[in-house]
Amino acid sequence: MNELSIESSPYLLQHAENPVHWKAWNQKTITDALNKEQLIIVSIGYSACHWCHVMEHETFENDDAAKTMNAHFTSIKVDREERPDIDAVYMKAVQIMTQKGGWPLNVVCLPDGRPIWGGTYFKLDEWIDTLEQLQKLYDSKPEKLLEYADKLQEAISSLQHLPNEKTETPTEILLQELVAKWTKSFDHDFGGMARAPKFMMPNNYDFLQRYGFQNKDEELLKFVDLTLTKMAYGGLFDTIEGGFSRYSVDMKWHVPHFEKMLYDNGQLLSLYANAYKRTKNPLYQEVIEKTISFLQTNLDNKEGGFYSALDADSLTENQVLEEGAFYVWRKSELQSLIKDDFELFSTVFNINQFGHWEHGNYVLIQSESLEEIAKSFAISTSELHQKKKAWEQILFGERQKRSSPRLDDKCLTSWNALTITGLAESYKALQNPIYLELALKNGQFIAEKLWSPEGNLFRSYKNRKATINGFLEDYACVIQSFIALYEITLDEKWLNDAKQLTDYSLEHFYEPEQQLFNYTSNLDSALISKHYDIEDNVIASSNSMMAKNLRSLALHFSNSFYEKTAQEMLDKILPNIDYPSAFSNWLDLALDFGESKELAIIGTNALNEVQKLNSHYLPNILIAGSTKNSSLSLLANRFQQEKTLFYLCENKSCQAPTDNLESVLKSIL
């Protein structure tokens, strides 16, 4: 056992028996490397990463590799999910050095932590040879490595400073231009972007849906629905048990990289819930229900929180770890299980060339709607729906006999918060009280287990212990989720908690000279470079989320500083947007500052009326409400006994109140 045996991260524990003398990232490890004047290896991955497992087996379990690493290097293993700050800084370095990135991420650094070489996956011989060459160069010509480290450090730091440009283009025109540019990348056959691999990018489609809805752009909405439909048809989405995999390796959302991550599924709940509110499409309802069922069955930590991920790899019948083994099917196996219905089943799920993956394995995927298939087989759509449910139950039972994928059983604060928001939006859409209960339990879990009496959030929770000071992402996601909890309960406790965390973030993360939030708290040890998280990726950037939170809370609390800060952040980003898909949450914020309104509902029946409103797709309406007297700026001095009144406001001016919900809906829909 090496030093990782005392860690709690499942990823680090996977390496605890390697012959490499791995250490965890901490101040003692860094200080020891400096004192010994040793080069540092920083190897970064996560528990559900397939190629991380491959490199571990081929290289880090190898005695020759361990001999080289132990003789000359301080070797540090990092779980990127626990320490996204370290991952972000060294990922930038590798992208500068190699023009690509990914995991496993492997970097060799000077004793002070500055990188001098890096890449992703390496075969055994290449890894050993490179390390030996770097050590020889460090022994013979250290000045060359120092010079390179200086230049690379300068390049990393320069990426953190956006030019203070101003744009004269009106925001409405700028958005039109960016969306027009974006549409050129659309895949009009399968949805998503016209490239492989395909990531789901929920915040992209949240924005495109909202933009299309507010601008009555039917073509854009059709594209969003095409994307959501094709993603839901399977392969990427596990139609048997629910839950989305991380991405598909092909253009048609068919063959996934099979790990299932909490952050994807939490955000996709929000996306499909909003799409259901807009369309009432039963396919979207099915996705929501199956995804929440998957979370309850597979990721529930029994304390109100959710675990992080299921691995892509699982054991085959021959006890060999293999990617996708739990999820794929052979034709003969399906024939024996489905029996007389196999012809119909194979049409629905493409047990043909379209659905074949490799080596005789099939990944279930629809390519046509059940309505179209039912018509061609001369049966009713309802009968086919029932058959599909029955088949899925049969396959679920059979799959339970297989070895399950490995579980990453840590709970991450930001990922749980994204799931709270997804559950809240699902409750709005489907009004299922179980979703409300799950969202509230998850919110209480964060408030009680991951929020310290000193005011800071922790990042990770496992074995009833919270660890690692939280990052901006954690604060941004939790604040967003607490606002969402207020929207479905009207309990102002959640709004006040969101404000408290916002004020803490402004004190410990915000940098006025940059007009942005630093990713790490000013209470944490500095890394080799600051990181300002501004690009919206698979998870929206923490700065864009914070700006949206500030804008929302500014309205609830009539806080001009919050509003000014959010506007300054947006003004800083907008002129620097080159490719819109990486800034979609910022573009959504631009819509917030554009055609948005506030709706205040005050009265003893306010919660019931809010539930009715929440079932509609109202992306440009901020809703506040109370069943009693409230001091919130949108609600103050408006409560009247025995009445429930609606106040529609825009640009800090409100219309005359009405007690008629239908008239309110007519004016905003």
Describe the protein's architecture and organization.
The protein folds into 4 domains: 3-158, Glutaredoxin; 171-313 and 408-592, Glycosyltransferase, CATH 1.50.10; 327-401, no CATH class; 597-668, no CATH class. The chain is 49% helix and 13% strand. It contains 25 helices and 25 strands. The longest helix has 19 residues, at 381-399.
Question: What is the topology?
Answer:
Elements: H1 10-14, E1 23-24, H2 27-36, E2 39-45, H3 50-60, H4 63-72, E3 73-79, H5 84-98, E4 105-109, E5 115-119, H6 124-140, H7 142-158, H8 171-183, E6 198-199, H9 202-214, H10 218-232, E7 247-248, E8 256-257, E9 260-261, H11 262-279, H12 282-299, E10 309-310, E11 313-315, E12 321-323, E13 329-330, H13 331-338, H14 342-348, E14 356-358, E15 361-362, H15 370-376, H16 381-399, E16 407-408, E17 411-412, H17 413-430, H18 433-449, E18 458-462, E19 465-469, H19 472-489, H20 492-508, E20 510-511, E21 516-517, H21 542-557, H22 560-573, H23 584-592, E22 597-603, H24 606-614, E23 621-626, E24 644-650, E25 653-654, H25 661-668
Parallel strand pairs: 1-3, 2-3, 22-23
Antiparallel strand pairs: 2-4, 4-5, 6-7, 7-8, 9-10, 10-16, 11-12, 13-15, 14-15, 17-18, 18-19, 20-21, 22-24, 24-25
